Amino acid sequence: MKTLELFLKESTPISPSISWYLADIGESKGKQKLYTHQSPQKLKALKEHALIESAVSSNRIEGVEISKDRIAPVILGQSNLRDRDEEEVRGYRNALEFIHQKEAKLPVSEKTILKLHRLIRGEIWDSGKYKDKDGDIIERYSDGRERVRFKTVTSKQTPNAMKGLISHWDEVIKLKSVHPMIALAAFNLDFLCIHPFRDGNGRVSRLLILLQSYHLGLEVGRFISLERLIEENKGRYYETLEESSRGWHQGRHDPWPYIGYTLFILKSAYREFEQRIGNLKERRGEKTALILQAIGHSKDSFHITDIQQKCPGVSVDMIRKVLKDLSTKARIKCLGRGKSAKWKKIGKWPNTGS
């Protein structure tokens, strides 16, 4: 609300780094049709992988986690749920599918936002409802100390704040008063500062990034998990959010650190997408390519469990088969025996910097 309001009131100069992000994302957006039309069948593996990673990572950021052996049954199957955490992970999966199916036809509205919250929260009393009590964002330290990191909008003001946020979004997009990708990041910052729900704000904010990306023609979130990239850069996420929310209530905040972070995530997703689709266009199968990508992004040495975590939809037998093939070709070397054996990469691997 405050950030979009700022962009509606005055013209704001854009730094070279932000301009670079916009240009880079725009270029990747222009190439995405070429990729998606070349390998439609192979992209199915990336879609499934992204669905799994998104549901797991977005919940794990908020401390909701399920065991590795339950990831595939909970997200891809219809198995009975064992606890509250599994319910929320599957709920996020349902929200993702809801967005994927509706895409551009699903408006950014209060109804949509409340529906997404209801999906991720499941059978709990406040699902799909704005908070009814005030609640600040508290940071707790290991020694027992705590501090108020941000004072959110009060429960009484929340409904009007949300109406204002959506109205400003529609107006900014219509008037083109700022680049739409900047507006997307600004909307997300304002949403998190309003903090409309008792719980689930972070997860809904990430779903809204995906939805608004689709509205802007950015398809990368369908194939690469934006949530996993945010989790991998979680420290920077919290740092830029705190920096940009300082002075938000008075409209004196600096939104650019968080806007830059959001654009960095989208740029990173496109870079990874282009790398992965490049691997998929080789003679290898889809799952083999995902395993190779996981090894490429691993440290110089790794365990099978490390690859399992990065490829939750791939069987351990398939991973072992690929490792054996790579070992035969002297691309990797096994440093031990048994399940806990460590593997070491040999020579230079692409996309790793090693």
What does this structure look like?
The structure is a single chain. With 354 residues, the protein is mainly alpha-helical. It has 15 helices and five strands.
List keywords for this structure.
mainly alpha, 5 strands, 15 helices, Arc Repressor Mutant, subunit A, 3-stranded antiparallel beta sheet, globular, Fic-like fold, 354 residues
Count of folded domains? 2
User: What's the CATH topology name of the largest domain?
Assistant: Fic-like fold
Number of H- or I-type helical stretches: 15
Helix proportion of residues, in percent? 55-70%
Low-pLDDT stretches are: none
Mass-distribution shape: globular
Tell me the strand percentage band: 5-15%
Distance between termini? 43 Å
CATH C-level label of the largest domain: Mainly Alpha
- Class of secondary structure makeup: mainly alpha
* Rg, Å, rounded: 21 Å
Tally of strands: 5
Return the string of H and E elements: HHHHHHEEHHHHHHHEHHEE
CATH architectural grouping of the largest domain = Orthogonal Bundle
Mean pLDDT: 89
**How many strands, which pairing sense, and closed or not: the largest β-sheet?**
3 strands, antiparallel
Summary, kept brief:
The protein is mainly alpha-helical.
Task: Map the helices and strands.
Elements: H1 2-9, H2 16-38, H3 43-61, H4 71-75, H5 84-102, H6 110-121, E1 137-140, E2 146-150, H7 158-175, H8 180-194, H9 201-215, H10 226-232, H11 234-245, H12 256-280, H13 286-296, E3 301-303, H14 304-310, H15 316-328, E4 332-334, E5 342-345
Antiparallel strand pairs: 1-2, 3-5, 4-5
